[in-house]
C-alpha cells in the first residue's frame, strides 16, 4: 500500500460519500487512476463497506452496554454455532473474541434497561453453549466509532 492508497483511505474514512472526482482532486491523481485504486482496495477487502453512522438515540436505542460472555467449556466444540447465533441478533452491534476470563465481548443496544435485561436473560442466556454474562452499562459515549489511524 503506497502513499496514494493511504490517502484514499484517509479521505474515505472522513467522507465515504465523496465523489471519485473530488477524491481524485484531493489525492492529486486522475479520476480513472483513483477509481482503479479504490476498486482494488475494495476487491482486496481493505475497504469493507460504506456505511452511515446513525445516532442510536434517533432510533429509540437509549441504552448501550458492553457484555462479557463466557462459553460452557463442555459445549466449547460448538463455538461456531454460538457465533452464528450471536451474529443473528440485531441488538448485538459488535462482537469480538477476547483473551482473559471471558470468551467474547459484545456491544449491545436496547431501548431501555428493561429491554436490555430481557434480551440478556430471555435471549442471550438461552443460547446453547453460553455459560455466563457480565454486563457494563455505557453511561456516556465519549468517542464514537471513528476511522482507523492511517499514518
Automatic annotation (TrEMBL):
UniProt record, GO biological process: response to amino acid
> Pfam family example for this protein?
AsnC_trans_reg
Which keywords label this protein? DNA-binding, Transcription, Transcription regulation
Keyword Lipid biosynthesis included in the entry's annotation: no
Residue ranges spanning the membrane: these are none
GO molecular function terms attached to this record: sequence-specific DNA binding
Q: Where is the HTH asnC-type domain?
A: 1-62
Q: Which GO terms describe its cellular component?
A: cytosol
Which PANTHER family does the entry mention?
LEUCINE-RESPONSIVE REGULATORY PROTEIN, TRANSCRIPTIONAL REGULATOR AZLB
Protein name as catalogued = Lrp/AsnC family leucine-responsive transcriptional regulator
Organism the protein comes from = Undibacterium pigrum
Amino acid at each position: 500500500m503506497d502513499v496514494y492508497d493511504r490517502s484514499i483511505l484517509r479521505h474515505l474514512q472522513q467522507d465515504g460519500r465523496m465523489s471519485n472526482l473530488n477524491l481524485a482532486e484531493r489525492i492529486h491523481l486522475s479520476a480513472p487512476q483513483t477509481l482503479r485504486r479504490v476498486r482494488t482496495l475494495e476487491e482486496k477487502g481493505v475497504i469493507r463497506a460504506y456505511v452511515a453512522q446513525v445516532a442510536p438515540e434517533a432510533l429509540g436505542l437509549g441504552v448501550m452496554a458492553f457484555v462479557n460472555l463466557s462459553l460452557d467449556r463442555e459445549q466449547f466444540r460448538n463455538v461456531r454455532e454460538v457465533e452464528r447465533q450471536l451474529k443473528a441478533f440485531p441488538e448485538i452491534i459488535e462482537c469480538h473474541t477476547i483473551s482473559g476470563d471471558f470468551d467474547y465481548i459484545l456491544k449491545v443496544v436496547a431501548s431501555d434497561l428493561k429491554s436490555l435485561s430481557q434480551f440478556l436473560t430471555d435471549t442471550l442466556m438461552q443460547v446453547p453453549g453460553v455459560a455466563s454474562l457480565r454486563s457494563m452499562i455505557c453511561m456516556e459515549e465519549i468517542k464514537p466509532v471513528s476511522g482507523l489511524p492511517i499514518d
